[in-house]
Amino acid sequence: MYAKEKTGGELSVGGPSVRGMTNAIVVERLVKRFGATTALDGVDLTVAEGSVLGLLGPNGAGKTTVVRVLATLLVADGGRVEVAGLDVGRHADQVRAAIGLTGQYAAVDEYLTGFENLEMVGRLYRLGKRESRKRAGELLERFDLIDAANRPAKTYSGGMRRRLDIAASLINRPRVLFLDEPTTGLDPRSRLAMWEFIAELADGGTTILLTTQYLEEADRLADRMVVIDRGRVIARGTSDELKAQVGGQRLEFTVTDAAVLPRMVERLRPLGVDDPVVDEQARRLSLPVSGGAEVLAEALRLLDGDTSRIFDVGLRRPDLDDVFLALTGRAAEEVASDDDTTAEPAMTGGAR
Amino acid sequence: MSSLAATLSDSVVITKRNLIKVKRVPDLIVFATLSPIMFVLLFRYVFGGAIGGLPPGVSYAEFLLPGIFAQTIVLGSTTTGASIAEDLQKGLIDRFRSLPMARSAVLVGRTVADLGLNAISIVVMGLTGLVVGWRINSSVGEAVTGFLVLLLFAYAVSWLMALVGLLVRTPEVVNNASFIVIFPLTFVANTFVPLESFPSVLRTFAEWNPVSAVVQAARDLFGNTSPLAPVPDAWSLQHPVLYTLIWVVLILAVFVPLSVRGYGRAAGR
Q1: Residue A121: which of B21, B99, B269 has the nearest Cβ?
Q2: What topology is assigned to A249-316 in CATH?
Q3: Contact B95 A121 (CB under 8 A)
Q4: What is A3-108+156-244's CATH superfamily?
Q5: Nearest CB neighbour to B92, from listed A73, A104, A109
Q6: Domain spans of chain B?
Q7: What are the tens digits of pLDDT across the range A261-296?
Q8: Does residue A72 come out as left (phi exceeding 0), alpha (psi in the -120 to 50 range) or beta?
Q9: CA distance B99 to chain A (A)
Q10: Given CB atoms, is B21 within the 8 Å cutoff of chain A?
């Protein structure tokens, strides 16, 4: 149903779409400059009411800048930006009343308790004292923070702070929610829990724009994705469409001794649908293949029992690094301003 | 809600939030009051005996306390800058800016909370002063006016510091940078020693230094001067209350709009 978007979005941006669905977010030719640097260079995107858009890209791609413009924290230098049917430049306060924002760093007051944090935000949304307290209680319950409700947020774990932060952005029942890297820095268990919370919100009909560095995260949560790099949209579509653009799955071997790699390449070459990639330093061999588990079995047969030097083997589907490699010719880490992607736990790297 | 009522209500919410921190981290207030106590004791007993040229009939404790009051609350105002910088760093300003709240409320709430902190430290210093021999020799009305002048000046300085915090964005840098400015400003003044002992250039600076006027105003209003003391040469010290109020109005007129504008543009990390 989003087939039109694949053409680049120009046809369906703005106002109700042909199918009568309203767009909760419309961004057209958005430009943002910081001094001489152009952070956003003509970004177009739309998010249909009630859907989830994953905005992907490496650090420094401009994801956060997009969110900050949409959330009225930055003023655009060009283009049109509408959130909940309102122009963010002209009706900033009305936009603010309709949105919730969870930034990259849990913006909670450490000295206030969880309850006090939520009550304060409710009061600042002008919900009134009684309603603010009622919402605070409900959200603490829902985000599993009720036991910690009366403890200062300073004592919370990273995952708890992030949940409290999201709870704060939900206190006014926003129509549109912005989540800027909601799981960066969380341990795997907290990340899974966060995914469940976000999926529940999406099921409840909240329009969500989610930025992430992890394709798997977008895969789990987003209906559609937009990939940006250096302030430009370089790809868009559903998860499957993106992966199709990147190419199919790959067979990956990690060995204990790089010396065996050339021999393996020779033996495995017939299986590949494209040239193998050898990384001697990582002692890794990656071979584009098609087919399922039988390819793996065939590969091991071709190696003919010569497997003592193999440390790890698996069939991999493309992840964001691969999307980047395919779309830009650069790995995500090369363009990343810092190294979050490499420090990240084994959520995207494992075989799937 | 009218916009003024809304701004007030937002500001009250933010002030409350800032004061909760004081309640949760009592060390803050302990250290904020220990240093003025230390200053009172050090100056009274270490330098007190060596400082001459005091107005006849005025003890050093009486001369000193208004000076210490002024120095401490001006220093106390730097809290505003450091706290704003901390809120920026932690992303809280981003959160506030994404809410449909009044633009000025975060700054109003911050400066008002810091005014409260300054009031507390004046009480602590005053009590310490009474122990070491300071006395108020004026009417209740004059004494209250004296405290109000001190707090009003400190409140204005808070708005200046708010802008510093928004621009500098690192609490430690706010503290270090403001010490470089505030120490000379509070020492090259009549705070601890009579102006008569200053070399001429410094003396002119000290006479027109608003801190001197604040101190002079407090001394006059607390009755910590002597009718036998010579009339100051500078207009600023002949009319210290008026001169202080002019500074207060000037600082607020410049830095309230600048700070509110800075807040509207402030970016977190």
Answers
A1: B99
A2: Alpha-Beta Plaits (3.30.70)
A3: yes
A4: P-loop containing nucleotide triphosphate hydrolases (3.40.50.300)
A5: A109
A6: 3-265
A7: 888 888 888 888 888 888 888 888 888 888 777 888
A8: left
A9: 5
A10: yes
ipTM, 2 dp: 0.88
User: Tens of pLDDT along chain B (269 residues)?
Assistant: 568 899 999 999 999 999 999 889 888 778 878 888 888 888 889 888 888 788 888 899 999 999 999 999 999 999 999 999 999 999 899 999 999 999 899 999 999 999 999 998 899 899 999 999 999 999 999 999 999 999 999 999 999 999 999 998 899 999 888 888 888 999 999 998 888 888 889 999 999 999 999 999 999 999 999 888 888 889 999 999 999 999 999 999 999 999 999 998 876 54
Residue A26: CB atoms within 10 A of its CB come to 21
- Give the CB-side neighbour count of residue A134, counting CA atoms within 13 A: 7
Stated length of chain B:
269
Q: Determine how β-strand A176-180 pairs with β-strand A224-229.
A: unpaired
Nearest chain B residue (CA) to A75: B265
**Which residues share a beta bridge with A279?**
A284
Write the residue in B6, B20, B94 that is nearest to A111 by C-beta. Answer: B20
Interchain proximity A101–B95, CB inside 8 Å: yes
Write out residues 276-335 of A within 8 Å (CB-CB) of B: none
Number of CB pairs < 8 Å for A and B? 75
Q: How far is CA B239 from CA A76, B193, B220, in A?
A: 50, 20, 10
